[in-house]
Amino acid sequence: MIKVLFVCLGNICRSPLAEAIFNKKLQNEGLSNKIMADSAGTGNYHVGENPDPRTIEIAGKHGIPVNHKGQQFKKHHQTDFDYLVAMDHSNQSNMIAEMGEHPEKLLLMRDFDPYGKGEDVPDPYYGGTNGFETVYQILDRSLVEFLTFLKKKHNL
Fold first, then answer.
1. Domain Phosphotyrosine protein phosphatase I spans what residues (predicted)?
2. pLDDT for residue 128
3. Architecture field, domain 2-153
4. Cα-Cα-Cα-Cα dihedral of 65, 37, 122, 115, to 10°?
5. What pLDDT score does 81 carry?
6. Domain boundaries, the chain
7. Which of 21, 55, 124, 147 is most buried per CB count within 10 Å?
8. Cα dihedral across residues 23, 26, 30, 32: positive or negative
């Protein structure tokens, strides 16, 4: 089983949305028995909480169920997961600080975005639902490419 962890700051907006979209893609392609996804936040602000209502609303608009409780990224995630995917450079730096190194498995989400390679997935928390829709679109196209990468690398 290939294990992927998506990571943002609070684990209520971007990373649970990435997790939900990715799990739906896995289900659609019949890969749920080969790849699994989870998400976490570098901060401890929302541990045990449901995702932001706007995350759930935008996901629902696209037919994506969201089932997650906030959790904080910890050093042990480095050994528990095969891929650690940060939503932005700040999250990536925080993860490196927690782990004490920059492992090869630590990736940036938008490194897979054909329209914004290397850029940050913007944090929509302080905006309206339009920002969440923008994040959905970024994640959706980036996750198509990420899944293609995984299928090729692991011969799936």
1. 2-149
2. 87
3. 3-Layer(aba) Sandwich (3.40)
4. -100
5. 98
6. 2-153
7. 55
8. negative
Q: How many CB atoms lie within 10 A of CB 89?
A: 13
Handedness of CA 27, 33, 35, 38 (dihedral sign): positive
pLDDT digits (tens, 9 = 90+) for 43-100: 999 899 999 999 999 999 999 999 999 999 999 999 999 999 999 999 999 999 999 9
Residue 136 confidence (pLDDT): 98
Q: Which amino acid is at 11?
A: N
Which backbone phi and psi does 55 adopt, to 5 degrees?
A: -65, -50
* 8-state DSSP, 64: -
Helix (H, G, I), strand (E, B) or coil at 107: strand
Contacts of 64 (CB under 8 A, 6+ apart): 20, 21, 24
**Which structure tokens are listed for 80?**
């528990």
Digit-coded pLDDT (tens) for 93-119: 999 999 999 999 999 999 999 999 999
Average pLDDT rounded to a whole number, residues 35-50? 95
Local structure of residue 75 (DSSP, 8 states): T
pTM for this structure? 0.97
Annotated catalytic residues are 8, 14, 123
Q: Cα(11)–Cα(125) distance, rounded to whole angstroms?
A: 11
